[in-house]
Design brief:
This protein has about 325 residues and is mostly helical. It has a single domain, classed as Na+/H+ antiporter like fold. Helices cover about 80% and strands about 0% of the residues. About 45% of the residues are buried. Keywords: Cell membrane, Membrane, Transmembrane, Transmembrane helix, Transport. Belongs to the auxin efflux carrier (TC 2.A.69) family.
Length: about 325
């Protein structure tokens, strides 16, 4: 009887995962298919991506953070778990690619960066909110806010150190540019606004609340669809060997390192540890490809890794969700 109950629970969990994961990947596939058939242009995907990044996700952040009693203090282990996992997989893959002669200098650093840079806004937000609901909102959005500035600053420093001859000025000028862009980043601004509203205990009500909620409700579907449209642009190209290595690092090693630290080294609420792990389990972020283009290093491999990791994540994300539910 005990074995039957355990089997029934696992079967129910598998059905829940199917109902959760398949619709999301179906929306991504729809975006890719419509772009591939020429029904919609790449400009539609670009415009939709801008809307998600500048309007829909910031509205969702303000809606969540403005609730005075939402969430709890973040344990220091939460930050150590996620960014410790980033550092481990980034360093490991960079060293491995150099040792094997697969990449050198800036290309190796960018490959390591890709293995630790998650597709958060367009993939992580919809999936993590679907899995953890209200319990995951605060840890998700706080991590989302600091993820980009920390990772991009670290990438700029390491890439500049990898090779002295780089385009576009000194490392100081580049870091200043990163700082200016972050000061105008809608997600960072939304987090600051939400935190101010929460600290002053000013809730969103009436018409303002209805407008913010309406924008926030569009975030998940629009993000997934725009990701599918973008994938038609970032095709599988050369450098598949490096792309496969990056994909393994991103979908297996990165979440594995975070899971070990979050669940077995530090103590924190299960939802926080789960959000950190799921955040790490997302496929390679498009920012990695943009960085590769900027430095003209590893573009083909990183572009292929974006597409390959997104495809493979249809299996690995479900596996990580199942593991976290059994933990």
């Amino acid at each position: 009887m005990h074995d039957f109950i355990r089997f029934a629970r696992r079967a129910a969990l598998s059905m829940d995962l199917t109902q959760l994961i398949l619709p999301m990947f179906a929306i991504v596939l729809a975006g890719w298919a419509l772009a591939a058939m020429g029904v919609i242009s790449q400009r539609v995907g670009e415009g939709l991506s801008e809307y998600v990044f500048a309007v829909a996700v910031p509205a969702l952040i303000v809606q969540t953070m403005a609730q005075p009693n939402e969430g709890a203090a973040i344990h220091v282990g939460y930050w150590v778990a996620y960014f410790g996992g980033c550092a481990l997989v980034w360093g490991l893959l960079t060293l491995f690619m150099r040792w094997r002669g697969m990449s050198a200098g800036q290309a190796a650093v960018i490959g390591g960066f890709a293995s630790s840079q998650s597709n958060t806004v367009f993939f992580g937000v919809p999936i993590i909110l679907a899995v953890y609901g209200d319990a995951g909102k605060v840890p998700l959005f706080l991590l989302l806010a600091v993820h980009l500035p920390i990772m991009m600053t670290a990438a700029t420093v390491l890439i500049e150190r990898a090779d002295g001859d780089t385009p576009g000025g000194t490392i100081g000028a580049r870091l200043a540019g990163v700082g200016k862009r972050l000061a105008r980043n809608p997600i960072v601004l939304a987090l600051v606004l939400g935190a101010v509203l929460r600290s002053l205990q000013i809730p969103l009500t009436g018409t303002v609340s209805a407008i913010v909620n309406a924008f926030g409700a569009t975030a998940s579907t629009c993000a997934l669809f725009s990701l599918g449209v973008s994938m038609h642009q970032y095709r599988l190209r050369d450098g598949l060997g490096v792309a496969a290595l990056i994909t393994v690092g991103k979908l297996v090693l990165h979440p594995l390192f975070v899971w070990v630290i979050a669940f077995h080294v530090f103590e924190m609420p299960p939802a926080y540890a789960g959000v950190a792990t799921m955040f790490a389990a997302m496929p390679v972020g498009i920012n990695s490809y943009l960085l590769a283009l900027r430095y003209r290093a590893g573009e083909a491999a990183v572009s292929s890794a974006v597409v390959l990791s997104t495809i493979v994540s249809s299996v690995t994300v479900a596996a990580w969700i199942k593991l976290l539910n059994w933990h």
